[in-house]
Amino acid sequence: MIRERLSGDLKEAIKAQDPTRISTLRLICAAIKDRDLNTRSDEGSGGMPESEILGILAQMIRQRESSADAYDEAGQVDMAEKERAEIEIIRSYLPRQLSEKEVRSAIATAIHDTGAASIRDMGKVMAHLKAHHTGRMDFARACACLKNSFG
Fold this sequence. Notes:
Blueprint: H1 2-16, H2 19-43, H3 50-73, H4 77-91, H5 100-114, H6 122-133, H7 139-150
Helix pairs in contact: 1-2, 2-4, 3-4, 5-6, 6-7
């Protein structure tokens, strides 16, 4: 579903001559196609599942947030704004993000479901969260919250 939406939106952006949207959507499509090629050669399948596409989008957002912060520190406000515009475009393809309360609830459920008892079990809990909430949760924040849960 995301693939079709991206393709249609790219065609619309080209018709509207929206350069930021065009370049961002092309980057997304290229990243997906690249991962598809790697997936096909590794598994012989027809491409990756939607959950992996959501992971790619989340990774692209993190990269742009980091770049925007670096541009801000360097005083290059126009470049930082460009990165933030791309973030908003990419974010529009992700499902609604979980609230802080929902994240804490998901962490509690993951701890219960995995039987995690200490910080040593963090990997199991994070794997559970990623399996169930990819694209809907900021895993860096979830990791910090999870550390606090174990004290």
